[in-house]
Amino acid sequence: MKLQRVLQYAQQLIKDTVEEGDTVVDATAGNGHDTLFLAQLVGDEGQVYAFDVQKSAVDVTLHRLLDNGLEHRALVLHRGHEEVANYVHKPVAAAVFNLGYLPGSDHDIITTPNTTIQAIEDLLKLLKIGGLIVLVIYHGHLGGKEERDAVIEYVSQLPQKYVHVLKYEFLNQQNDPPFVIALEKMKDYPLS
Ligand code: SAM
Question: What keyword terms does UniProt attach to this protein (predicted)?
Fold first, then answer.
């Protein structure tokens, strides 16, 4: 298969961007798969900030890091990603979002348009030039389409001189397949 699956593509973008020593953000820690992936990329000098509003997700993520001996590379915060600006004060190389609910957990706890957009806006300010925000957008659940549409509307109006915005999506898959939105910061600009 030549066309990369959506999750593989998202990981490849991150892998191509993150270097040892970088500061990165997992905006939706969940079961901690992305937090671990990022911790493996940043090395001992780097730092992952992982956010989740569910205590159980924070605990699972911490355990996953401990099982892999990488807990010293990550700060796992029981906070919403809309608070990212309160916790991250260094230039960020990459940030990852998996929108939607945590599989195997409460399907009522989902990411929401306003908080997701707030976090993207703040991360755009924190991002280094050449840094990436990668969102995997799940939209099959109740509330998913509203969030998908709000995020697309927000990122579509970002000025291309400053941010390149990409959508990677299979058009003929059934059942609301997830897709990727990636934002690459090209230049600093006066974000309000
Ligand atoms: N990346 C995760 C993994 O590797 O397992 C899956 C993430 S899951 C699709 C979405 C997660 O976002 C859930 O764990 C949910 O609790 C979390 N979430 C919902 N609202 C949030 C918010 N405002 N800030 C941070 N996390 C949030």
Answer: Methyltransferase, Transferase
The three-point CA angle 123-89-117 to 5° equals 20
pLDDT in tens, 162-190: 999 999 999 999 999 999 999 999 998 77
pTM higher than 0.80: yes
Token pair, residue 104, equals 């195997």
**CATH homologous superfamily of 23-185:** Vaccinia Virus protein VP39 (3.40.50.150)
Burial class of residue 66, CB neighbours in 10 A (0-12, 13-18, 19+): exposed
Question: Is the beta carbon of 116 within 6 A of some atom in ligand 1?
Answer: no
- 141 Cβ inside 6 Å of ligand 1: no
